[in-house]
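User: I'm new to structure prediction. If I give you an amino acid sequence, what do you actually give back? Let's try with this one:
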Amino acid sequence: MKNLSLYLGAAAACCLQLSCGDPAAFVPTFAPNPWDDNYASVSAMDDYGKWGPYNVHDPSVRKVGDTYYMYSTDAIYFDRQLMRERRERGDSIPQVTTGFIQVRRSNDLVNWEYVGWAFPEIPHEAVDWVRGNADGRGAGNIWAPYMIPYKDKYRLYFCVSAFGRKDSYLGLAESSSPEGPWTQVGCVVKTNGSSVMNAIDPSVIVDSATGRWWMHYGSYFGGLYCVELNPETGLTLKEGDQGHVVARRANYRQDNLEAPDIMYHPELKEYYLFTSYDPLQTTYNVRVGRSQVVEKDFTDFFGVALADTTNNFPILTAPYRFDNHPGWAGTGHCGVFTDGAGNYYMAHQGRLSPQNQMMVLHVRQMFFLPDGWPVVSPERYAGTPAHKFRMKDLPGDWEIIRVQEPSFKRATEAGQVLGGEGELRGEECNVSRHISLLVDGQLSENRGTWTFDGHTQMLTLSFANGEEPIDNLIIFAGHDWENQTETVLFTGLDGRGRSVWGKRVK
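Assistant: Good question. You get back a string of structure tokens that encode the predicted 3D arrangement of the chain. For your 506 residues, that looks like this:
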């Protein structure tokens, strides 16, 4: 077994290195949230400069120098009632020139500046391909951009499609700056109704050993595919190549699969392929598999191949609700990235419940367990300093969520919920329960016991009712968004490959 310290992730390792001897006591402190989750008041187009964490859908993030850049789909929540009220008051409503692919930047992963749009228009070649194959439909916006540097250039991959069809165009643009302007290079992959796969949702990675370039892409239609790229051009190495399947699900009429994102962990020497399951507006959730090679052989928590048709685990995110908040749906389509100092993060959309229309950025710290599987924080990142904890810091009242996949099926079209079914049903949201860690190592109401290893900063919960113990919970400091305070958090996996989240609330 590899050294445990490799698996804790740099954020946890940082906690361990903060001090020698007995660390200082952790005192929860009030900390206002960086923003309000409801952004109806700034949803108008002329308020786009205030969209920092808002209208984020399908984000990908890359650090360039000291700045994080985020690129995302052209998805916008529009409050029609607000616009009616403005017109009735006679307010002046400026005309705003918009574009395609939203671009943001940040220096701290908390405060995001809306830069604008990458493209002034959708490339004509993409529009012609999609509408020419989709009976004149589609190509109304640009989906799922992904940026990667190459030499003195920045490459921006993107896709144009028609909903519910395989008529798609996956293109490439280049620039000398991560903020553009961008020059169109050409088509990487395109698909139509006769294709097995769907040319959307690109994620590009360079093989750490060989320097070969690979793009993972695909969706509900046919599964996820991987194709080799030419490093010099950014296009496919072999013209017309559409690649090979790397992940799929059995029931394509019902079960959505999309949004691959690929990363490499240099210490663990593993490639991790993150995917999103189920409808994006409701039960969207993130899964992950891993391989020692970049282009194939990804397996899940139980050793099952992602290219098989079995649903895969672990499940890292899913709709959830802690107390004092309406909760989140649509917690999927992630972008995974590093700060360059060994700390890992996941960015994804979250749809504010109960209507699930507003799309708010979620950035979560990511850690690696002793067995090499990644897990993410139960709370969004807000810049909380790392802290090394003692056993005496943990007793108190905790909210715990055991993340589960949806318990029943809906009627869907192309893997998405049908009209009128855009809100979560009660059983589809993972809700918290309360449990107390007592000072004597017992759980409240004789539910079991708990232990804490101060060296590894890991918590074990053992239950008296026959429930399987959870012995890999990473303890760390974070922001409690629901209660606006700094607190103690934990994250881990149970023996069934489902995330277990917790936060101390008293």
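You can read the tokens as a compact description of the fold. Here is one thing that stands out. Confidence is low (pLDDT under 50) at residues 1-20.
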